[in-house]
UniProtKB/TrEMBL annotation:
It is an enzyme of class 3 (hydrolase). It comes from Manduca sexta. The active site is at E388. Belongs to the glycosyl hydrolase 1 family. Keywords: Glycoprotein, Glycosidase, Hydrolase, Signal. InterPro entries: GH, GH_1_N_CS, Glyco_hydro_1, Glyco_hydro_1_AS. GO terms for molecular function: beta-glucosidase activity. PROSITE patterns: GLYCOSYL_HYDROL_F1_1 (PS00572), GLYCOSYL_HYDROL_F1_2 (PS00653). Its EC number is 3.2.1.21. One of its GO terms (biological process) is carbohydrate metabolic process. Homodimer. This is beta-glucosidase. It holds the Pfam family Glyco_hydro_1.
Length: 491
Protein backbone atom coordinates (compact mmCIF):
# COMPACT_ATOMS: atom_id res chain seq x y z
CA UNK A 1 0.00 0.00 0.00
CA UNK A 2 1.16 3.52 -0.68
CA UNK A 3 0.05 6.95 0.42
CA UNK A 4 -2.41 7.79 -2.31
CA UNK A 5 -5.50 5.62 -1.96
CA UNK A 6 -7.44 3.44 0.47
CA UNK A 7 -6.76 3.00 4.17
CA UNK A 8 -3.22 3.18 5.47
CA UNK A 9 -1.78 -0.23 6.20
CA UNK A 10 -0.43 1.03 9.52
CA UNK A 11 -2.38 2.50 12.41
CA UNK A 12 -1.56 4.79 15.33
CA UNK A 13 -1.10 3.06 18.68
CA UNK A 14 -4.08 3.26 21.07
CA UNK A 15 -2.19 5.48 23.48
CA UNK A 16 -0.82 7.76 20.75
CA UNK A 17 -1.28 11.43 21.72
CA UNK A 18 -3.26 13.41 19.17
CA UNK A 19 -3.56 17.13 19.72
CA UNK A 20 -3.73 20.57 18.21
CA UNK A 21 -1.57 23.65 18.95
CA UNK A 22 -1.99 27.39 19.37
CA UNK A 23 0.00 30.22 20.99
CA UNK A 24 -1.17 33.09 23.20
CA UNK A 25 -0.21 36.13 21.13
CA UNK A 26 -1.52 34.53 17.96
CA UNK A 27 -5.06 34.02 19.30
CA UNK A 28 -5.86 35.77 22.59
CA UNK A 29 -6.27 39.41 21.65
CA UNK A 30 -7.36 41.55 24.65
CA UNK A 31 -3.86 42.99 24.59
CA UNK A 32 -4.56 45.62 27.26
CA UNK A 33 -7.48 44.18 29.19
CA UNK A 34 -7.87 43.28 32.85
CA UNK A 35 -4.42 44.34 33.93
CA UNK A 36 -2.37 42.62 31.25
CA UNK A 37 1.08 44.11 30.66
CA UNK A 38 2.46 44.63 27.18
CA UNK A 39 4.53 42.04 25.41
CA UNK A 40 7.27 43.10 23.04
CA UNK A 41 4.99 42.13 20.13
CA UNK A 42 2.29 44.53 21.38
CA UNK A 43 4.72 47.37 21.80
CA UNK A 44 6.72 46.83 18.65
CA UNK A 45 3.76 46.38 16.30
CA UNK A 46 2.04 49.46 17.69
CA UNK A 47 5.18 51.45 16.98
CA UNK A 48 5.94 49.78 13.63
CA UNK A 49 2.65 48.96 11.88
CA UNK A 50 4.51 48.30 8.64
CA UNK A 51 6.24 45.34 10.18
CA UNK A 52 3.49 42.89 9.20
CA UNK A 53 2.28 42.03 5.70
CA UNK A 54 -1.22 43.43 6.26
CA UNK A 55 -0.26 46.11 8.82
CA UNK A 56 -2.30 44.23 11.40
CA UNK A 57 -1.33 42.93 14.85
CA UNK A 58 -2.54 40.66 17.64
CA UNK A 59 -4.65 43.27 19.46
CA UNK A 60 -7.81 41.26 18.81
CA UNK A 61 -6.71 38.16 16.87
CA UNK A 62 -9.29 35.37 17.26
CA UNK A 63 -10.38 36.99 20.52
CA UNK A 64 -9.73 33.80 22.44
CA UNK A 65 -9.42 35.73 25.70
CA UNK A 66 -13.19 36.13 25.46
CA UNK A 67 -14.06 33.20 23.21
CA UNK A 68 -12.12 30.40 24.85
CA UNK A 69 -15.31 28.36 25.27
CA UNK A 70 -15.66 28.39 21.47
CA UNK A 71 -12.08 27.15 21.20
CA UNK A 72 -12.74 24.35 23.66
CA UNK A 73 -15.81 23.33 21.66
CA UNK A 74 -13.89 23.04 18.40
CA UNK A 75 -10.97 21.21 20.02
CA UNK A 76 -13.56 18.79 21.40
CA UNK A 77 -15.18 18.46 17.98
CA UNK A 78 -11.85 17.37 16.54
CA UNK A 79 -11.86 14.46 18.97
CA UNK A 80 -8.30 15.12 20.15
CA UNK A 81 -7.57 14.64 23.81
CA UNK A 82 -4.75 17.20 24.03
CA UNK A 83 -4.62 20.94 23.44
CA UNK A 84 -1.23 22.68 23.34
CA UNK A 85 -1.46 26.37 24.15
CA UNK A 86 0.75 28.98 25.78
CA UNK A 87 0.51 31.37 28.69
CA UNK A 88 1.13 35.01 27.93
CA UNK A 89 3.91 35.91 30.38
CA UNK A 90 2.82 39.59 30.60
CA UNK A 91 -0.83 38.63 31.09
CA UNK A 92 0.19 36.75 34.20
CA UNK A 93 3.05 39.04 35.27
CA UNK A 94 2.45 42.52 33.78
CA UNK A 95 5.99 43.71 34.55
CA UNK A 96 7.51 40.32 33.85
CA UNK A 97 8.54 40.00 37.50
CA UNK A 98 6.96 37.76 40.11
CA UNK A 99 6.24 40.50 42.63
CA UNK A 100 3.12 41.51 40.75
CA UNK A 101 0.75 38.74 39.70
CA UNK A 102 -2.24 39.91 37.66
CA UNK A 103 -5.18 38.18 39.33
CA UNK A 104 -7.49 38.47 36.33
CA UNK A 105 -4.85 36.89 34.11
CA UNK A 106 -4.21 34.14 36.63
CA UNK A 107 -7.93 33.46 36.80
CA UNK A 108 -8.30 33.42 33.01
CA UNK A 109 -5.83 30.54 32.61
CA UNK A 110 -7.22 28.69 35.63
CA UNK A 111 -10.73 28.77 34.15
CA UNK A 112 -9.49 27.83 30.68
CA UNK A 113 -7.55 24.83 32.02
CA UNK A 114 -10.43 23.69 34.22
CA UNK A 115 -12.95 23.91 31.40
CA UNK A 116 -10.66 21.85 29.15
CA UNK A 117 -10.17 19.22 31.81
CA UNK A 118 -13.94 19.03 32.40
CA UNK A 119 -14.38 17.77 28.84
CA UNK A 120 -11.42 15.38 29.08
CA UNK A 121 -8.92 17.46 27.16
CA UNK A 122 -5.44 17.63 28.64
CA UNK A 123 -3.89 21.10 28.37
CA UNK A 124 -0.25 21.07 27.27
CA UNK A 125 1.10 24.37 28.50
CA UNK A 126 4.00 26.29 26.95
CA UNK A 127 5.55 28.95 29.15
CA UNK A 128 7.30 30.95 26.44
CA UNK A 129 5.96 31.17 22.91
CA UNK A 130 7.84 34.39 22.07
CA UNK A 131 5.77 37.08 23.84
CA UNK A 132 8.47 38.52 26.10
CA UNK A 133 7.14 41.16 28.53
CA UNK A 134 8.15 44.59 27.24
CA UNK A 135 9.47 45.52 30.67
CA UNK A 136 12.00 42.69 30.40
CA UNK A 137 12.74 43.26 26.73
CA UNK A 138 13.78 46.76 27.76
CA UNK A 139 16.51 45.05 29.78
CA UNK A 140 17.74 43.23 26.68
CA UNK A 141 15.47 40.19 26.75
CA UNK A 142 17.34 36.93 26.23
CA UNK A 143 20.63 38.70 25.52
CA UNK A 144 20.72 39.53 29.22
CA UNK A 145 21.95 36.70 31.50
CA UNK A 146 19.52 37.88 34.19
CA UNK A 147 16.62 36.72 32.00
CA UNK A 148 17.40 33.17 33.10
CA UNK A 149 16.30 33.95 36.64
CA UNK A 150 13.34 36.08 35.59
CA UNK A 151 12.14 33.17 33.48
CA UNK A 152 12.55 30.75 36.37
CA UNK A 153 10.62 33.13 38.64
CA UNK A 154 7.81 33.15 36.09
CA UNK A 155 7.91 29.36 35.76
CA UNK A 156 7.64 29.04 39.54
CA UNK A 157 4.52 31.22 39.59
CA UNK A 158 2.97 29.07 36.85
CA UNK A 159 3.86 25.75 38.53
CA UNK A 160 2.41 27.03 41.83
CA UNK A 161 -0.78 28.34 40.28
CA UNK A 162 -1.56 25.49 37.93
CA UNK A 163 0.67 22.52 38.72
CA UNK A 164 -2.13 20.82 40.65
CA UNK A 165 -4.11 20.42 37.41
CA UNK A 166 -1.44 20.78 34.69
CA UNK A 167 0.89 17.82 34.27
CA UNK A 168 2.24 18.42 30.78
CA UNK A 169 4.51 21.47 30.33
CA UNK A 170 6.87 22.81 27.75
CA UNK A 171 9.28 25.58 28.63
CA UNK A 172 10.19 27.31 25.37
CA UNK A 173 8.86 27.11 21.81
CA UNK A 174 11.39 27.04 18.97
CA UNK A 175 14.35 28.90 20.48
CA UNK A 176 16.06 28.74 17.09
CA UNK A 177 13.33 30.66 15.27
CA UNK A 178 13.04 33.08 18.15
CA UNK A 179 16.75 33.85 18.50
CA UNK A 180 17.70 33.78 14.85
CA UNK A 181 14.74 35.79 13.51
CA UNK A 182 14.40 38.14 16.47
CA UNK A 183 17.96 38.76 17.69
CA UNK A 184 20.03 37.84 14.64
CA UNK A 185 17.87 39.52 12.01
CA UNK A 186 14.79 41.70 11.62
CA UNK A 187 12.32 39.00 10.59
CA UNK A 188 10.74 38.85 14.05
CA UNK A 189 10.37 41.17 17.01
CA UNK A 190 12.51 42.36 18.83
CA UNK A 191 14.26 42.86 15.45
CA UNK A 192 17.56 43.57 17.16
CA UNK A 193 19.57 42.55 14.11
CA UNK A 194 22.70 41.83 16.10
CA UNK A 195 23.57 39.04 13.73
CA UNK A 196 26.19 36.55 14.80
CA UNK A 197 26.32 38.02 18.30
CA UNK A 198 23.04 38.53 20.16
CA UNK A 199 21.49 35.51 18.47
CA UNK A 200 24.02 33.26 20.23
CA UNK A 201 23.52 35.11 23.51
CA UNK A 202 19.81 34.44 23.07
CA UNK A 203 20.44 30.74 22.35
CA UNK A 204 22.70 30.47 25.35
CA UNK A 205 20.49 32.12 27.95
CA UNK A 206 17.26 30.65 26.64
CA UNK A 207 18.84 27.20 26.98
CA UNK A 208 19.90 28.00 30.52
CA UNK A 209 16.47 29.41 31.35
CA UNK A 210 14.94 26.20 30.08
CA UNK A 211 17.33 24.02 32.08
CA UNK A 212 16.79 25.94 35.31
CA UNK A 213 13.01 25.85 34.92
CA UNK A 214 13.25 22.10 34.28
CA UNK A 215 15.40 21.56 37.40
CA UNK A 216 13.03 23.67 39.47
CA UNK A 217 10.07 21.57 38.37
CA UNK A 218 11.98 18.36 38.79
CA UNK A 219 13.09 18.99 42.35
CA UNK A 220 10.33 21.12 43.86
CA UNK A 221 7.14 20.33 41.98
CA UNK A 222 7.36 16.98 40.24
CA UNK A 223 7.58 14.94 43.46
CA UNK A 224 3.95 15.73 44.21
CA UNK A 225 2.59 17.19 40.95
CA UNK A 226 3.87 14.19 38.96
CA UNK A 227 3.89 15.85 35.55
CA UNK A 228 6.25 15.89 32.61
CA UNK A 229 8.11 18.85 31.17
CA UNK A 230 10.20 19.38 28.06
CA UNK A 231 11.30 21.77 25.36
CA UNK A 232 10.15 22.21 21.75
CA UNK A 233 12.81 22.57 19.04
CA UNK A 234 12.21 23.19 15.35
CA UNK A 235 13.94 21.83 12.28
CA UNK A 236 13.66 21.97 8.56
CA UNK A 237 14.87 18.82 6.86
CA UNK A 238 17.58 19.13 4.20
CA UNK A 239 18.11 17.10 1.06
CA UNK A 240 21.48 17.36 -0.69
CA UNK A 241 20.95 19.41 -3.84
CA UNK A 242 22.91 16.80 -5.73
CA UNK A 243 22.69 13.49 -3.90
CA UNK A 244 25.83 12.31 -5.66
CA UNK A 245 27.95 15.11 -4.25
CA UNK A 246 29.61 14.47 -0.90
CA UNK A 247 29.87 18.24 -0.30
CA UNK A 248 26.11 18.61 -0.62
CA UNK A 249 25.53 15.72 1.75
CA UNK A 250 27.96 17.34 4.19
CA UNK A 251 26.11 20.64 3.84
CA UNK A 252 22.94 19.03 5.17
CA UNK A 253 24.75 17.77 8.23
CA UNK A 254 26.44 21.15 8.80
CA UNK A 255 23.12 22.95 8.54
CA UNK A 256 21.42 20.59 10.99
CA UNK A 257 24.26 20.92 13.49
CA UNK A 258 24.36 24.72 13.33
CA UNK A 259 20.63 25.37 13.41
CA UNK A 260 19.30 22.43 15.40
CA UNK A 261 22.15 20.58 17.10
CA UNK A 262 23.08 23.89 18.73
CA UNK A 263 19.94 23.48 20.83
CA UNK A 264 19.47 19.72 20.83
CA UNK A 265 23.00 18.56 21.70
CA UNK A 266 23.24 20.33 25.10
CA UNK A 267 19.98 18.68 26.19
CA UNK A 268 19.59 15.35 24.40
CA UNK A 269 23.06 14.02 23.51
CA UNK A 270 25.04 11.64 25.72
CA UNK A 271 27.88 14.13 26.34
CA UNK A 272 26.00 17.41 26.59
CA UNK A 273 27.29 20.91 25.81
CA UNK A 274 27.26 22.46 22.33
CA UNK A 275 28.08 20.10 19.46
CA UNK A 276 31.90 19.95 19.19
CA UNK A 277 31.61 20.92 15.51
CA UNK A 278 29.70 24.09 16.34
CA UNK A 279 31.97 24.96 19.28
CA UNK A 280 35.06 24.66 17.17
CA UNK A 281 33.64 26.53 14.21
CA UNK A 282 32.41 29.48 16.27
CA UNK A 283 35.67 29.69 18.20
CA UNK A 284 37.75 29.57 15.02
CA UNK A 285 35.66 32.03 13.06
CA UNK A 286 35.43 34.47 15.97
CA UNK A 287 39.19 34.51 16.37
CA UNK A 288 39.71 34.94 12.64
CA UNK A 289 37.26 37.84 12.62
CA UNK A 290 39.22 39.63 15.34
CA UNK A 291 36.97 39.03 18.33
CA UNK A 292 38.78 38.81 21.65
CA UNK A 293 36.64 35.79 22.55
CA UNK A 294 34.21 33.42 20.92
CA UNK A 295 30.82 34.80 19.91
CA UNK A 296 29.36 31.57 21.29
CA UNK A 297 29.36 31.79 25.09
CA UNK A 298 30.64 28.88 27.18
CA UNK A 299 28.71 26.77 29.67
CA UNK A 300 30.27 26.02 33.05
CA UNK A 301 30.55 22.36 34.02
CA UNK A 302 27.59 22.80 36.31
CA UNK A 303 25.51 24.29 33.50
CA UNK A 304 26.42 21.46 31.15
CA UNK A 305 25.10 19.06 33.78
CA UNK A 306 21.93 21.05 34.39
CA UNK A 307 21.16 21.02 30.69
CA UNK A 308 21.95 17.39 30.05
CA UNK A 309 18.76 15.33 30.15
CA UNK A 310 16.63 18.36 30.97
CA UNK A 311 13.63 17.30 28.91
CA UNK A 312 11.25 14.40 29.46
CA UNK A 313 10.47 14.23 25.75
CA UNK A 314 11.82 15.66 22.51
CA UNK A 315 9.28 18.28 21.40
CA UNK A 316 9.74 18.65 17.65
CA UNK A 317 8.21 21.17 15.23
CA UNK A 318 8.57 20.47 11.55
CA UNK A 319 7.09 22.07 8.44
CA UNK A 320 9.24 21.75 5.34
CA UNK A 321 12.39 20.62 3.53
CA UNK A 322 15.04 22.56 1.59
CA UNK A 323 17.69 21.56 -0.90
CA UNK A 324 21.15 22.21 0.51
CA UNK A 325 24.63 22.75 -0.87
CA UNK A 326 27.74 24.64 0.28
CA UNK A 327 27.37 28.40 0.01
CA UNK A 328 30.01 30.52 -1.67
CA UNK A 329 30.27 32.94 1.26
CA UNK A 330 33.85 33.83 2.04
CA UNK A 331 35.24 34.37 5.52
CA UNK A 332 36.60 37.79 6.44
CA UNK A 333 33.25 39.52 6.84
CA UNK A 334 32.89 42.43 9.25
CA UNK A 335 29.35 41.61 10.23
CA UNK A 336 29.14 37.97 11.24
CA UNK A 337 25.92 35.99 11.04
CA UNK A 338 24.53 32.53 11.43
CA UNK A 339 24.49 32.28 7.61
CA UNK A 340 28.20 33.09 7.45
CA UNK A 341 28.86 30.66 10.25
CA UNK A 342 26.84 27.92 8.58
CA UNK A 343 27.84 28.54 4.96
CA UNK A 344 25.09 26.41 3.53
CA UNK A 345 22.88 27.52 0.69
CA UNK A 346 19.17 26.76 0.97
CA UNK A 347 17.03 26.44 -2.13
CA UNK A 348 13.61 25.16 -2.85
CA UNK A 349 12.98 22.19 -5.04
CA UNK A 350 11.34 23.59 -8.16
CA UNK A 351 8.91 20.67 -8.37
CA UNK A 352 7.71 20.36 -4.80
CA UNK A 353 4.28 21.92 -4.23
CA UNK A 354 4.19 25.29 -2.52
CA UNK A 355 0.58 25.82 -1.48
CA UNK A 356 0.72 29.12 0.40
CA UNK A 357 4.04 30.51 1.59
CA UNK A 358 7.39 31.05 -0.05
CA UNK A 359 9.21 29.16 2.67
CA UNK A 360 6.95 26.14 2.78
CA UNK A 361 7.19 23.44 0.13
CA UNK A 362 5.62 20.05 0.66
CA UNK A 363 8.00 17.08 0.90
CA UNK A 364 6.52 14.46 3.23
CA UNK A 365 9.51 12.02 3.22
CA UNK A 366 11.60 14.77 4.81
CA UNK A 367 9.53 14.37 7.95
CA UNK A 368 10.34 10.67 8.24
CA UNK A 369 14.03 11.35 7.61
CA UNK A 370 14.09 14.05 10.28
CA UNK A 371 12.40 11.72 12.78
CA UNK A 372 15.08 9.15 12.03
CA UNK A 373 17.91 11.68 12.31
CA UNK A 374 16.61 12.83 15.69
CA UNK A 375 16.14 9.25 16.84
CA UNK A 376 19.63 8.21 15.82
CA UNK A 377 21.33 11.23 17.31
CA UNK A 378 19.28 11.95 20.41
CA UNK A 379 16.14 9.90 20.64
CA UNK A 380 17.33 6.76 22.35
CA UNK A 381 16.27 7.81 25.82
CA UNK A 382 13.28 10.06 25.38
CA UNK A 383 10.22 9.78 23.17
CA UNK A 384 9.60 12.30 20.39
CA UNK A 385 6.42 14.35 20.53
CA UNK A 386 5.71 16.33 17.39
CA UNK A 387 4.43 19.57 18.88
CA UNK A 388 3.73 21.33 15.54
CA UNK A 389 3.27 20.34 11.91
CA UNK A 390 1.10 21.93 9.26
CA UNK A 391 0.93 24.14 6.21
CA UNK A 392 -0.60 27.40 5.05
CA UNK A 393 -2.76 28.29 2.11
CA UNK A 394 -5.11 31.14 1.21
CA UNK A 395 -7.88 30.20 3.57
CA UNK A 396 -10.30 28.15 1.50
CA UNK A 397 -12.79 25.96 3.42
CA UNK A 398 -12.36 23.14 0.92
CA UNK A 399 -8.69 22.86 1.73
CA UNK A 400 -7.84 19.72 -0.22
CA UNK A 401 -4.14 20.52 -0.14
CA UNK A 402 -4.12 20.63 3.65
CA UNK A 403 -6.02 17.33 3.79
CA UNK A 404 -3.38 15.83 1.56
CA UNK A 405 -0.51 17.42 3.51
CA UNK A 406 -1.70 15.98 6.80
CA UNK A 407 -2.45 12.56 5.32
CA UNK A 408 0.98 12.31 3.77
CA UNK A 409 2.98 13.72 6.66
CA UNK A 410 1.12 11.53 9.12
CA UNK A 411 1.76 8.52 6.92
CA UNK A 412 5.49 9.26 7.07
CA UNK A 413 5.17 9.40 10.83
CA UNK A 414 3.53 5.95 10.77
CA UNK A 415 6.42 4.63 8.70
CA UNK A 416 8.88 6.12 11.17
CA UNK A 417 7.13 4.30 14.00
CA UNK A 418 6.36 0.98 12.38
CA UNK A 419 9.19 0.35 9.97
CA UNK A 420 12.02 2.46 11.42
CA UNK A 421 11.37 1.96 15.11
CA UNK A 422 11.30 5.65 16.02
CA UNK A 423 9.69 6.28 19.37
CA UNK A 424 7.14 8.92 18.41
CA UNK A 425 4.43 9.21 21.03
CA UNK A 426 2.44 12.24 19.97
CA UNK A 427 1.48 14.65 17.23
CA UNK A 428 -0.01 18.14 17.38
CA UNK A 429 -1.34 19.87 14.27
CA UNK A 430 -0.47 23.53 13.74
CA UNK A 431 -2.95 25.06 14.12
CA UNK A 432 -6.45 24.90 15.54
CA UNK A 433 -7.76 27.90 13.59
CA UNK A 434 -6.56 30.69 11.32
CA UNK A 435 -4.68 33.14 13.52
CA UNK A 436 -2.14 35.96 13.65
CA UNK A 437 0.90 34.53 11.88
CA UNK A 438 3.63 36.89 13.11
CA UNK A 439 5.21 38.81 10.22
CA UNK A 440 2.60 37.49 7.82
CA UNK A 441 -0.20 39.03 9.87
CA UNK A 442 -3.46 37.34 8.90
CA UNK A 443 -2.41 36.63 5.32
CA UNK A 444 -1.08 33.12 6.00
CA UNK A 445 -3.82 30.66 6.90
CA UNK A 446 -2.70 27.60 8.85
CA UNK A 447 -5.96 26.64 10.57
CA UNK A 448 -8.00 23.46 10.63
CA UNK A 449 -10.82 25.89 11.28
CA UNK A 450 -11.49 29.05 9.36
CA UNK A 451 -12.13 32.23 11.34
CA UNK A 452 -14.38 35.00 10.09
CA UNK A 453 -12.34 37.95 11.33
CA UNK A 454 -15.04 40.41 10.21
CA UNK A 455 -17.78 38.85 12.30
CA UNK A 456 -18.28 40.08 15.85
CA UNK A 457 -18.11 36.50 17.15
CA UNK A 458 -15.03 35.63 15.10
CA UNK A 459 -17.02 32.65 13.91
CA UNK A 460 -15.04 29.42 13.61
CA UNK A 461 -15.94 27.08 10.74
CA UNK A 462 -14.42 23.62 10.17
CA UNK A 463 -12.46 23.17 6.98
CA UNK A 464 -12.31 19.78 5.23
CA UNK A 465 -8.98 19.22 6.92
CA UNK A 466 -10.68 19.46 10.34
CA UNK A 467 -13.13 16.74 9.35
CA UNK A 468 -10.34 14.65 7.92
CA UNK A 469 -8.20 15.03 11.07
CA UNK A 470 -11.18 14.05 13.20
CA UNK A 471 -11.49 10.89 11.10
CA UNK A 472 -7.81 10.03 11.60
CA UNK A 473 -7.99 10.63 15.34
CA UNK A 474 -11.08 8.48 15.65
CA UNK A 475 -10.07 5.57 13.44
CA UNK A 476 -6.34 5.74 14.30
CA UNK A 477 -5.70 5.27 10.59
CA UNK A 478 -5.50 7.42 7.49
CA UNK A 479 -8.09 7.10 4.76
CA UNK A 480 -6.51 8.53 1.64
CA UNK A 481 -9.84 8.49 -0.16
CA UNK A 482 -11.82 10.72 2.17
CA UNK A 483 -12.02 14.40 1.25
CA UNK A 484 -9.97 13.72 -1.81
CA UNK A 485 -9.84 16.58 -4.26
CA UNK A 486 -12.12 16.28 -7.28
CA UNK A 487 -9.33 17.92 -9.29
CA UNK A 488 -6.21 15.89 -9.82
CA UNK A 489 -3.69 18.72 -9.74
CA UNK A 490 -3.62 18.93 -5.95
CA UNK A 491 -0.61 17.61 -4.10
C1 LIG B 1 6.20 28.00 13.98
O1 LIG B 1 7.26 28.70 13.43
C2 LIG B 1 5.73 28.72 15.22
O2 LIG B 1 5.97 27.98 16.39
C3 LIG B 1 4.32 29.18 15.15
O3 LIG B 1 4.07 30.13 16.13
C4 LIG B 1 4.09 29.69 13.75
O4 LIG B 1 2.87 30.36 13.66
C5 LIG B 1 4.13 28.52 12.82
O5 LIG B 1 5.28 27.75 13.00
C6 LIG B 1 3.98 28.85 11.35
O6 LIG B 1 5.04 29.61 10.86
O7 LIG B 1 9.83 33.78 5.10
O8 LIG B 1 12.20 33.59 5.36
O9 LIG B 1 11.02 35.24 6.63
C7 LIG B 1 7.80 28.13 12.27
C8 LIG B 1 8.94 28.94 11.84
C9 LIG B 1 8.96 31.20 11.25
C10 LIG B 1 9.32 29.48 9.65
C11 LIG B 1 8.84 32.22 10.15
C12 LIG B 1 9.21 30.49 8.57
C13 LIG B 1 9.51 32.76 7.94
C14 LIG B 1 10.82 32.73 7.26
N1 LIG B 1 8.60 29.88 10.81
N2 LIG B 1 9.61 31.78 9.03
S1 LIG B 1 10.99 33.92 5.99
Amino acid sequence: LDDSSGWSNYSFPDDFIFGVSTAAYQIEGAWNEDGKGESMWDTYLHEHPDFTADRLNGDVATDSYHRYMDDIQIVKDLGVKYYRLSISWPRLLPNGTDNNVNNAGAKYYRTLFEELIKVNITPVVTLFHWDMPTALMDLGGWSNPLMVDYFVDYARVAFKLYGDIINFWTTVNEPHQHCYNGYGSTIFVPAINSSGVAEYLCSHYILLGHAKAYRLYDTEFRPYQKGKIGITLDAFWGEPKDANKQEDRDAVETYLQMHFGLYAHPIFSMEGDYPPFVRERLDTYSEYEGFARSRLPTFTEEEVKALLGSSDFFGLNHYTTYLMSPSTMEPGWKVPSLEHDTRVKLEQHPKWPKPGADWLTVYPPGFRKLLNWVTNKYGRNVPIIVTENGMCDHGQIDDYERVSYYNKYLYQLLLAIHTDGCKVEGYFAWTLMDDFEWTDGYTAKFGLYSVDFNSPNKTRTPKLSAKNYRGIVKSRRINFDSFKSPISTYL
